[in-house]
Design brief:
Immunoglobulin-like, 18 strands, 24% strand, TIM Barrel, 496 residues, alpha/beta, globular
């Protein structure tokens, strides 16, 4: 959600209920003590870290790119200590700052209109500007819309969003087919918002006679009310049946957080979309400290619990997880936010009201956590596909292989991908580089020449000379079987 607009929503909460609301909040927050099995996070006092700062591709923060330079070069801790791998600012930028290896996410903003095509580009403001952006930044992630299900953000009925998404997706792919494009994130995965997404999914199929194409799925993962006078409210043009009621004291409930992510991955799997990555492009605690969410310990404990979940075995599922990322449910996440006025909203890592900006207690807690992590890289071959031409014999088979990096750090150094025949003799090799993190991949193309008719068995090894230091060296090999037929049969084409 956009920071400025969220301030207005929060102020509306305060003004609409007046003193009665404040009394209600006080009553909600005077809850029982923590259960005996509650995890307690103790502060780390020693700030002399041995781990170097690095871009951890899984961790991100929502931030204004125009102000990002304010957080560089600060003492004793600046932006580099947060090990951020990516960020967004709810807009687009052809020249975004990307310090310390951070990736910028392009968020195309939309609005619904009353005349065909019933939508308009907001940012960028024209198709020409979008074309120039894609040509300048073809490797960025492009998210189409920001919370189209929210009355306070892009606010689009499913039919209008389908038209916008189809046109934007097709336009970008027409310029750069390899550019990753994904659907805009809903506020939270709840039953009423699954209904909104189902309508989008079905409308796209009916309108264009094909599945909705998306290179990745992304959601926002807040825990917000959908009934009454505050929260996420109801998506436009959607039946409100099943809207959830959330109390102000429930915004950090990990059981709700986890079950919703499992529900969304289950929804993806049911749609045949399990083989797509899932990104959380915004989550956190929106309410400030005086609403019962002090940075220490409450917001910190929630933040740490989400990190532990994302990185740990609890978020792995062999049935609905992402296979290219060791079956983790979520590949990357963005915290709300790097810096905004803590008076209005919770979760800030820096306090922007001071000059220079100062680290918040939550920001220090973030540093304490990520500085215990180390860079990880793990290469793995996946999905080898052989193309055997019909003739002449012998043939040259072309094998395309996905080379995955399911570690948390990108690879910039080159490494070889080598094809070996059954006897272990190298057949062909290709230098590969720039494989980004978190289950993303590049495609290596290998040639196997002079194959006579028959079945040919070999194997492909990624990084055979161990140029890359990996967390697991035992998963770098895949078997390949290429079948060359004795005769290539051409069937007649019959037109009736």
């Amino acid at each position: 959600m956009n920071i400025r607009r969220r301030r207005l929503v929060l102020c509306g909460i305060l003004l609409s209920a007046g003193g009665l609301m404040l009394i209600g909040v006080a009553a909600l927050l005077a809850g029982p003590s923590l259960p005996p099995d509650q995890t307690i996070y103790l502060p780390i006092v020693n700030h002399r870290y041995n781990t170097r700062n690095f871009a951890h591709g899984r961790f991100g923060a929502a931030a204004s790119s125009t102000e990002l330079t304010r957080y560089l070069g600060l003492q004793p801790y600046d932006l580099s200590w947060f090990n951020l791998g990516w960020y967004l600012d709810w807009g687009v930028n052809a020249q975004p700052p990307e310090p310390y290896g951070m990736e910028y996410v392009q968020v195309i903003r939309l609005m619904q209109t009353t005349t065909p095509p019933y939508y308009a580009l907001v940012e960028p403001a024209s198709w020409g500007e979008l074309a120039a952006l894609v040509q300048a930044r073809p490797n960025d992630l492009y998210v189409v819309g920001n919370e189209p299900d929210s009355p306070f953000q892009d606010n689009m009925c499913p039919a209008a969003y389908v038209s916008a998404y189809h046109d934007v997706y097709t336009f970008i792919k027409g310029i750069s087919p390899s550019t990753p494009v994904g659907i805009g994130g809903i506020v939270q995965p709840t039953p009423v918002r699954f209904r909104y997404l189902d309508t989008i999914w079905n409308t796209y199929q009916i309108s264009y006679s094909q599945r909705l194409p998306t290179d990745f799925w992304n959601i926002h993962a807040f825990i917000l009310n959908e009934t009454g006078g505050w929260g996420a409210f109801i998506p436009p043009c959607t039946d409100p049946a099943g809207a959830v009621t959330i109390g102000l004291d429930e915004l950090d409930r990990m059981d709700i957080f986890i079950s919703r992510l499992q529900d969304f991955r289950q929804w993806m799997a049911a749609k045949g979309e399990r083989e797509k990555p899932l990104y959380i492009t915004e989550y956190g605690i929106l309410f400030p400290e005086d609403y019962g969410y002090p940075n220490i310990p409450r917001v910190r404990d929630f933040m740490y619990a989400t990190f532990d979940y994302f990185l740990g075995p609890q978020s792995i599922s062999p049935t609905i997880g992402y296979p290219r990322d060791n079956n983790h449910l979520v590949q990357r996440w963005i915290w709300f936010s790097l810096a905004h006025d803590p008076y209005y909203m919770g979760g800030a890592l820096f306090d922007p009201r001071t000059t220079p900006p100062t680290l918040t207690t939550l920001g220090q807690a973030w540093i304490d956590y990520v500085q215990q992590l180390t860079p990880t890289v793990n290469l793995m071959p996946y999905n080898a596909i052989a193309n055997v031409p019909p003739d002449p014999r012998p043939v040259t088979a072309t094998i395309q292989l996905e080379v995955i990096n399911n570690g948390g750090s990108a690879i910039s150094n080159g490494f070889y991908v080598t094809l070996y025949d059954q006897g272990g003799t190298p057949v062909s090799s290709e230098m590969t580089q720039d494989v980004r993190c978190c289950g993303r991949f590049s495609v290596a193309t290998l040639l196997w020449p002079n194959l006579p008719p028959g079945i040919h068995t070999g194997h492909i090894r990624v990084d055979p000379d161990n140029r890359i230091n990996e967390t697991n060296e035992s998963d770098n090999e895949i078997e390949v079987i290429v079948t060359v037929l004795e005769h290539y049969t051409r069937l007649p084409l019959i037109v009736r």
